[in-house]
Design brief:
mainly alpha, Farnesyl Diphosphate Synthase, two-stranded antiparallel ribbon, 69% helix
């Protein structure tokens, strides 16, 4: 479920790419400061995006700098920071904990079990700071698990739980923008869930695992259905996004929502076209 909300680097100016990288490295730095190298290993594009959205909206005082790290030991890299990075780092770790837990329950992956146990203590700390956020997260994920085990064929039921979870995370403060942020997060959550199901379908079919698109994939209009549904969901997200009075880094955010979110979809389409047998004229 991670990794869809990133930049389309080929359509973004170099200066904006560097600015995005400074956010990404800044979140990585915050994760390391709060949770050590274990926290840094949970770094995701999805929470980097949320941090940029919140920073653009609230424009808190920013710090910047450059440093080397274990992952980039030879060349210093720029980073930025502000008060909102702590919140996004905590939500990043919480989601990673639940992803590892979900992978362990689904696949009995030893690696996922070990990661889950390692993240358990940090998660309990986050749970103490944000009990409502973590409770909503756990409730939504529990309902997703129950629905998947029941084999529900409709993707909307599961997508709505992902939407509720992400909407809760986007509602960072109780202010005039809370409802709009929540609505944006909900629409993005539905998009991510459907994109993830679309991306995972061949692998799930091969393994005999549940996927909400299994039945739909048997229809002739399957590809059109998925593209139209994804387009509608990301349009709902961008509609809420455009209501927010964003100026700072808005070029990066638009690049992500209008192009970057589709990167994995485009890769999948290109692979499918490449694998198609060539048509020869008689």
């Amino acid at each position: 479920m991670f990794g869809y909300v990133t930049i389309a680097a080929d359509t973004l100016p170099k200066e904006s790419q560097e600015r995005y990288r400074a956010y990404y490295c800044g979140l990585c730095r915050t994760l390391r400061q709060r949770y050590g190298n274990l926290g840094r290993m949970t770094l995701s594009y999805d929470l980097t995006f949320l941090w940029i959205v919140l920073s653009s909206l609230y424009e808190p005082m920013e710090t910047d700098g450059s440093e080397r790290c274990a992952l980039h030991p030879f060349k210093p890299h720029a980073y930025v920071g502000n008060e909102l990075s702590d919140y996004c780092a905590d939500m990043n770790v919480a989601l990673s904990y639940h992803k590892c837990r979900d992978d362990w329950q689904d696949d009995r992956s030893v690696a996922s079990f070990l990661s889950m146990k390692a993240l358990e203590k940090p998660y309990r700390q986050i749970q103490a700071r944000y009990p409502e956020k973590c409770a909503a997260m756990e409730q939504c994920l529990q309902r997703i698990s129950q629905t998947e085990k029941a084999g529900a064929p409709e993707p909307d039921v599961l997508a709505n739980q992902t939407a509720k979870m992400l909407g809760c995370l986007y509602r960072c403060r109780e202010d005039e923008w809370a409802d709009t942020l929540e609505h944006m997060g909900e629409a993005l959550g539905r998009f991510i869930y459907l994109m993830d199901a679309y991306d995972d379908l061949p692998k799930d079919q091969k393994r005999g695992r549940y996927n909400p698109l299994t039945e739909a994939a048997e229809q002739e209009d399957y590809e059109d259905f998925c593209k139209e549904s994804l387009t509608m969901l990301i349009a709902e997200c961008t509609q809420a996004f455009e209501v927010l009075p964003l100026v700072q880094d808005v070029e990066i955010l638009r690049n992500i929502l209008y192009a970057g979110c589709w990167s994995r979809y485009r890769i999948k389409q290109q692979k499918r076209d490449k694998d198609k047998p060539a048509v020869t004229n008689p």
